[in-house]
Design goal:
The complex is a heterodimer of chains A (321) and B (432).
Chain A (H helix, E strand, L loop, with lengths): L12 H19 L12 E6 L5 H12 L3 E6 L11 H10 L4 E6 L4 H8 L4 E7 L5 H14 L11 E5 L6 H12 L3 E5 L20 E3 L2 H5 L4 E4 L15 H8 L3 H4 L7 E3 L12 H4 L6 H21 L10
Parallel strand pairs in A: 1-2, 1-3, 3-4, 5-6, 5-8, 6-7, 8-9
Helix pairs in contact in A: 1-5, 1-11, 2-11, 3-4, 5-6, 5-11
Chain B lengths: L2 E11 L4 E10 L2 E6 L11 E4 L4 E4 L1 E6 L12 H10 L2 E6 L10 H14 L3 E4 L15 H7 L4 E2 L8 H14 L3 E3 L12 E2 L2 H6 L3 E2 L1 H18 L3 E3 L5 H12 L4 E5 L1 H5 L21 H13 L4 E2 L28 H10 L5 H8 L1 H7 L14 E11 L18 E11 L2 E5 L2 E2 L2
Parallel strand pairs in B: 1-4, 1-5, 6-7, 7-8, 9-10, 10-13, 11-12, 13-14, 14-15
Antiparallel strand pairs in B: 1-2, 2-3, 5-16, 16-17, 17-18, 18-19
Classes of the chains: A alpha/beta (321), B alpha/beta (432).
Chain lengths: 321, 432
C-alpha cells in the first residue's frame, strides 16, 4: 500500500479498476438523501489549492465531508504564500497540525513530489500540478465512461480515444494518456504541431502506440470517445497559434467534425470550457456530451481516493512512491 | 631565497609533451629546473618534498567560476571560493562578472583582484562584462577593464542578444587582443525552460530548454568571429550539434576556443530524476548522444578546456519547486576526480586530461601559465590519483553545498598545491 496519489503514470490496469470499483460504491452515497458515511471520521484533510480552481476544490471538499473527514481549505490568497512563505515552510506548518491528507493543486510541475519528499507522515493527493498530471481527473473521466459504456461487452477497453487541443500544456491529457495506455486503448492526439510535440511518441514518453494527427476530422475518425482540452490561455497558449480564430476554425470540436467519429461517440471536457474556441456550445450541451456527469462522478472518485489513502484499504497509487 | 625540490614524482606537462619521472626545483616564485630523477642534488634545495606515487602537473586553470563577490557574499566569497579552488588543485580561476555591481568598470576589477590577493589561496583573474550591467544594451568600457586586469570579457548567464553589439564588442576586443567568452542561449527559444527539452521534460511537465537555443547562438558567434577575424570562446558546450559547429569552425581556421563542464561530460538529463534541483543548471544536462559528442570533442581537440561553471547557491534557493530553483552547481572541488573518471573509463589519456585543465585553458585566454618549463611561475599541483574519498558537506570549502555529486565515491585529490612558490595546500588540507 503506497501513501500518495501523484500520477496515473505507473498505475496498472488493476490499480485503476480498483479505484473505479471503489468509486462506484460511493456513487450510491451521493444519491442518498443523507449523503454521509462515517469511514473517515476523525481524519483531517487539508485542501491546499494554490492555483485557482472551482470544481476540483469543491469536489474534493464535498468528497471529504461525505466521508465524515474534517476538511480545511487553504487557497493561494489566504495562505502565507502571498506573504512570501516558501512551499516548504507552508507544508511544514501544515504538517505540524498533523493532517492525514493534503490535497494539493499547484501551478508548478513536481510540487506534489516536493511535498511528498519533505513530509514524512502525510499522504499527498495531486489535484493538478502544472503541466504534469491531474490523476483524479483521469479517474473521473474513466468512471464516467465506465458508467456510460456499462452495456458494452469490453467496457472501457478496446476503445478509440481522441484527445483534442492543447496537449503540450495539459496535465489532463497526460493523465488520460497514461490511463488509456494502461487499458490498452487506441489513442489519437489531435491538434496543431505547435501544441503536440513529436516527443510524445518517443519511447521514453508514450511511445509509438499513440497517433499524432493534425487534421481534426482524420483524428476523430472512428473515435468512441473525444476528450476536448481547455485552451489554457493563462499559459499563453495563444502564442502557439496564429490566432484563436484560426485555431478554432481548424480544431473546434463541433457537430460537423463529430460526424467523422463513431455513432455513439461521447464527448468529455474537463472544464471550464472556452465555448466556441475548443468546443462548440451545440456539442457541449448536446446529447453526446458527458460534461455534467463528469462533475457528478468526480465526487465519487475523490471519495474513493481519499478513502484508500486514509484507511490504507485496497488500491495502491502511482510509481512516485 | 627558499628553494623547494620536489622529488620522485611523475611530471605531466602537456605544454612540453612531457610525461616522465622528473624532479622539479622551485626558486621562490619561479620554476628553476625540471630534471631527470636524481640529477638535482638535494644540497641545491632548502627544502625537499617527496612526491613518490604522485603526479606533478602545472597548477590547474578554471576559465569559468562564479565567486559571487561583490554582492552575493552569502553564496560564496572570493576567499571561500578561492580556498575551494586551491583544494581542487587550482592555482588560477577566472571569475565571471555577474556580481552586484557587475564587473563593468575598473574599480570592481581592482576590488576583485585585491580580494583575491588578500585571500591568498590562488590567483583570481576577473572577466569583465561585455555590456554595462549585463543588459546587452551598451558596451562596457572594455579598454578600461582590460587595463585594470581583466583577462577576457563575457556576459555569462546572459547571451549578448544584440548581434550588432556583439559584433562591435568583438572588434574592440580584437584590438585589445582579448577573447569574448560566450554564454550561448537564445532566450526566446529557451523561454522559461528549466531542463533539457525532450521526451523527459514533456513527461515531467517542465518547460524545456531546447538544444537549438544553444546551437543558433554558437552558429551566430562563429560567423561573427569569421566576419570580424576576432577571437571567441564558447562557454559550457552542451549539445552535440554545437560541438560539430565548433569543429567545423576550427577546420575553417576561425579562432574559436571552447570549454565543457565535467557534469555535461558525465551526467544526462535523467539526473533530474524526481525533480532534483541540484541537477538544474544552464545549459541543462542533455542526453547520452550529447555526452558522447562532448567526449569526442575533448578527445579530438575540438574542445580546448574543461571548466567548472562553479555556481554556488544557498540551500534556500534550491529547496523550492523545480522551476523556481536557481540554476547552477558547485564544481571546484570535484573537477579533478570527475575528470579522472574520464581517464579511467578510457575516454581520454591522463596527459589529455591534464592538458584540458592547464595548457588548454591557458592558451584559450592567452595566460602565461599552465606549464612547468624553466622560468615559468611556480604554480603546481601535486596529484594523488589513487586517493579515494567521498564528497560530503564537511569537506566542502565553499559557502554553499549545491552539487548532485554529494555522496559520490571519488578518486584523485590535490595533495599539494603551490601558487607562485607558496604551498597553499598540504596533505590535501589548506595550509593556512
Amino acid at each position: 500500500m503506497r501513501r500518495h496519489l501523484i500520477g496515473i503514470e505507473g498505475l496498472t490496469k488493476e490499480d485503476i479498476y480498483s479505484y473505479l470499483n471503489n468509486a462506484a460504491t460511493f456513487v450510491e452515497v451521493s444519491e442518498r438523501e443523507l449523503k454521509k458515511v462515517p469511514p473517515l471520521r476523525g481524519k483531517t484533510i487539508v485542501n491546499l489549492f494554490l492555483e485557482p480552481s472551482t470544481r476540483t476544490r469543491v469536489s474534493f471538499e464535498i468528497a471529504g465531508k461525505r466521508l465524515s473527514a474534517d476538511t480545511i481549505n487553504v487557497g493561494a490568497s489566504d495562505s502565507s504564500i502571498t506573504k512570501g512563505e516558501t512551499l516548504l515552510d507552508t507544508a511544514r506548518t501544515l504538517q505540524a497540525m498533523a493532517p492525514d491528507i493534503i490535497v494539493m493543486r499547484h501551478k508548478e510541475s513536481g510540487a506534489p513530489h516536493f511535498l511528498a519528499k519533505h513530509l514524512e507522515k502525510t499522504s499527498i493527493v495531486n489535484a493538478g500540478d502544472g503541466m504534469h498530471e491531474h490523476p483524479t481527473q483521469a479517474l473521473l473521466d474513466l468512471l464516467t465512461l465506465k458508467h456510460h459504456f456499462k452495456e458494452r461487452s469490453a467496457g472501457i477497453e478496446d476503445l478509440t480515444v481522441a484527445i483534442v487541443g492543447d496537449i503540450r500544456h495539459s496535465r489532463v491529457a497526460r493523465s488520460n494518456i497514461w490511463a488509456h495506455l494502461a487499458l490498452n486503448n487506441r489513442i489519437n492526439l489531435v491538434g496543431p504541431p505547435t501544441l503536440i510535440p513529436e516527443e510524445f511518441r518517443h519511447p521514453r514518453l508514450f511511445g509509438e502506440k499513440i497517433n499524432i494527427i493534425h487534421d481534426l476530422k482524420t483524428g476523430l475518425r472512428g473515435a468512441d470517445v473525444v476528450i476536448c482540452l481547455r485552451m489554457q490561455l493563462e499559459r499563453q497558449t495563444d502564442k502557439f497559434v496564429p490566432s484563436l480564430e484560426e485555431y478554432s476554425q481548424e480544431y473546434c470540436v463541433n457537430e460537423r467534425a463529430l460526424q467523422a467519429a463513431n455513432p455513439g461517440c461521447v464527448v468529455l471536457h474537463p472544464g471550464p470550457a472556452n465555448r466556441g474556441l475548443e468546443v462548440s456550445s451545440a456539442v457541449l450541451d448536446g446529447a453526446q456530451s458527458l460534461m455534467q456527469k463528469q462533475v457528478n462522478f468526480g465526487v465519487a472518485v475523490r471519495m474513493a481516493v481519499l478513502f484508500a489513502l486514509a484507511t490504507g484499504k485496497t488500491v495502491s497509487e502511482g510509481k512516485s512512491e | 631565497m627558499s628553494k623547494l625540490l620536489i622529488k620522485n614524482g611523475l611530471v605531466i606537462d602537456p605544454a612540453a609533451s612531457l610525461e616522465e619521472p622528473r624532479d622539479v626545483l622551485l626558486n621562490g616564485a619561479l620554476i628553476e629546473a625540471v630534471e631527470r630523477p636524481g640529477a638535482i642534488p638535494e644540497s641545491a634545495a632548502t627544502e625537499v618534498l617527496n612526491a613518490s606515487g604522485m603526479w606533478i602537473t602545472p597548477g590547474f586553470i578554471d576559465l569559468h567560476v562564479h565567486l559571487r563577490e561583490p554582492g552575493f557574499e552569502w553564496k560564496e566569497t572570493i576567499e571561500s571560493g578561492s580556498r575551494a579552488a586551491a583544494l581542487g588543485g587550482f592555482t588560477t580561476v577566472c571569475c565571471m562578472p555577474n556580481t552586484k555591481p557587475v564587473n563593468h568598470n575598473a574599480e570592481i576589477t581592482r576590488f576583485i583582484l585585491e580580494q583575491g590577493r588578500r585571500a591568498g589561496a590562488c590567483r583570481v583573474l576577473p572577466i569583465g562584462s561585455v555590456s554595462v550591467g549585463l543588459k546587452g544594451e551598451e558596451m562596457s568600457p572594455l579598454s578600461e577593464l582590460w587595463a585594470a586586469g581583466c583577462v577576457a570579457f563575457s556576459d555569462d548567464g546572459e547571451p549578448v542578444w544584440d548581434s550588432g553589439l556583439m559584433r562591435r564588442a568583438l572588434e574592440w576586443a580584437k584590438m585589445l587582443g582579448a577573447r569574448i567568452s560566450c554564454h550561448e542561449e537564445d532566450k526566446k527559444l529557451s523561454c522559461g525552460g528549466c531542463m533539457n527539452e525532450s521526451a523527459l521534460s514533456y513527461r515531467m511537465g517542465l518547460n524545456g530548454m531546447p538544444k537549438v537555443a544553444e546551437d543558433v547562438m554558437v552558429a551566430r558567434d562563429i560567423e561573427l568571429a569569421r566576419a570580424t577575424s576576432s577571437k571567441v570562446h564558447i562557454c559550457h558546450l552542451s549539445s552535440a550539434r554545437s560541438v560539430e559547429l565548433v569543429r567545423r569552425a576550427k577546420h575553417d581556421g576561425i579562432d574559436v576556443s571552447a570549454e565543457v563542464t565535467p557534469h555535461h561530460l558525465l551526467l544526462t538529463e535523467e539526473t533530474v530524476g524526481d525533480y532534483d534541483t541540484n541537477a538544474k543548471m544552464s545549459p541543462p544536462l542533455r542526453e547520452q548522444e550529447d555526452v558522447e559528442a562532448l567526449r569526442a570533442g575533448i578527445k579530438d581537440g575540438t574542445i580546448d578546456a574543461i571548466a567548472s561553471d562553479h555556481a554556488p547557491h544557498e540551500q534556500d534557493s534550491k529547496l523550492v519547486e523545480f522551476s523556481k530553483a536557481s540554476f547552477g552547481i558547485l564544481g571546484l572541488q570535484t573537477n579533478l576526480p570527475l575528470t579522472l573518471e574520464l581517464v579511467r573509463n578510457g575516454t581520454i589519456s591522463r596527459m589529455r586530461a591534464i592538458e584540458l585543465w592547464t595548457r588548454g585553458p591557458a592558451k584559450a585566454f592567452g595566460l602565461e601559465r599552465g606549464t612547468l618549463r624553466c622560468g615559468a611561475p611556480a604554480d603546481l599541483s601535486i596529484i594523488n590519483p589513487d586517493y579515494h574519498w567521498t564528497l560530503s558537506k564537511e569537506l566542502i570549502a565553499s559557502k554553499s553545498f549545491n552539487t548532485p555529486f554529494m555522496g559520490r565515491a571519488l578518486s584523485g585529490i590535490a595533495e599539494t598545491v603551490i601558487v607562485e612558490g607558496q604551498v597553499v595546500v598540504k596533505a590535501h588540507k589548506l595550509s593556512r
